[in-house]
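Hmm, how's this folded?
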Amino acid sequence: MKCPFCQHEETQVLDTRVSEEGDSIRRRRRCNSCEKRFTTYERIELAMPVIVKKNGSRTEFEAPKLRASLMLALRKRPVSADAVDAAIHRIEEKLLSSGEREVMSGQIGELVMRELKRLDKIAYVRFASVYRSFEDVAEFEDAIAEVGRERKRTSTKSVD
């Protein structure tokens, strides 16, 4: 590691500690030339897959764009910020754990719909209406019926 002060190539590690969150390592170092001390951090760098859009173009995954989509569907709905953060985290984990270098945008849309269905049924129908390009009332009715059937299944399971 180069010294940030004198650019000398050799530095000595004085202390190594894992961060409280456990997601990085903090190292205190001393330059062998100028004797100044500095701190470095090591973090895991995982690459999110590239998103392949419907038209074939490719773009980088953007978590803020994902958050904006979720927040638009959840607008004026009683869902906590922590629940949204957890949903985003689950989507990112699924994308990372897939091991794929490229993911179709439709897969992300399906992951978002699955999370919205867990968070808020109204937000799910809102998102589905745009994502699936509903063109008439019958498609809304189908989406609402789907949510109703699922709700019925989960309520009968809890009775058993």
Q: What stands out?
A: The mean pLDDT is 86. Residues 50 and 61 are 6 Å apart (CA to CA). Helices lie at 63-73, 81-97, 105-119, 121-131, 137-159.
